[in-house]
Fold this protein.
Amino acid sequence: MNGMDARGVLAAALFRSSRKPKKSGKSIAFCCPRHADSHGSAWLGEYQWGCSACGFTEHFDTLADALGVTLPDEATATKRGLTVAEYAERKGLRLDTLAAAGVRDAVGKYGDAIIEMPYRDAKGAVIRTKVRTRTGTFWLRDGDGTPLYGQDILAQSQRPVLIVEGESDCHAGWERGLCVVGLPGASQWRTEYASLLTGRTVYVWQEPDEGGATLVAAVAKDVPKARVISDVVHHGDVVKDLCDLHQRIQADEDFADVWQGITDSATPIGAEGPTVAFDSISGSTLVQMLDEKLAPIDAVPTMLPQWNTLCRGGGGGVGLARGWMVTIGANTGTGKSL
C-alpha cells in the first residue's frame, strides 16, 4: 500500500471495483454495496462513509470489509475511539440493556468510533443526545438544556426512584431492575425535575466526593422528603456509585437483598453529617489548653502605680501584659504620650 492512509486505500479499492466511483467535490460517490444501487447513492468522505439512500454514516472499517481490503492498523476507528461493546465490557453491562436504552455506535467527525446515548421524555421521544468518546462526553446539537436521563423509565411505574449522577449508573440500575434517573452532572439538578417525582419514594445516591454533596444539597431544596444513600460498603470495600456496586455483586449474591439493606440504611435528606471531617479534641488536649490559659501572664511593669491598679490584676497586676492592644483616648496635654 506504500504508506497510503485509510481513505487512500479505500479510494484505490473503489476505483478498481465495479461500484462506478466518481469524484464529487471532496467526496467520492459510488454505488452502495448494501442495496441494488445504480445512482451512486453512497459516498466516501475524509473520515467516514455512508449512503444517502440507506441513511447511515459509518467508520471506514465497514467499507473496508465490504470491499475486501485491509486498513492500516493506526487507521482503525475502533482502536482510536469507543464502541458500545467496549463500553459494555468496561461497565459490566449487557448489550441488550444498552440496546433497550437506545445506546448505539456512531462515527465521529474525524472517523473515530463514538457512542450516542439518547435522552428520552416520558413518551420515549428523544429530547437530546449525549455522545461519549474515549476521553469524555459532549452534547449533539439536536436539542437544548440538560434534561433528566431516564424519564421514559420513570414513567413506566410508580416504584421508588433513585437519583444518580451520570448515564452509566442508570444503565447499571436498569439492568438490575431498579427505577433510576440520572443527572448529566452533579451540579445539573433543576427545580422543574421535582414535578416528575411527585408522589414517589425518592432516594439520592451521594458519591463520596464534593460532587456528591453538591447533588444532595440541590435535591434537598426541592424534594425535602428524599432519603440519602451514602457511605456504601460492600465486603469491606467503599463503593463509589451504583455502577461500581453492580460490578461488585458476586454470582452467588442476591442483588435484591443487598439493595434492600442499602435502602434500609438510607437517611433523611438534610440529616447528613458535615461534608468536612473535623478532628476530635482529646481530653489531654483540653487540659493542655486550660494550663496555657491559667499560666502566669508575662507582663511589662509601668512607672505609674495608677496603671497597675487599673489593670485590676491583669498583667500580673504589675503592668501591660504582652500581646495586649491598648487604646488610650484623652484631651491634649493630659499625658497620653507618657
Q: What stands out?
A: The first strand starts at residue 22 and ends at 24. Residues 6-77 form one domain.
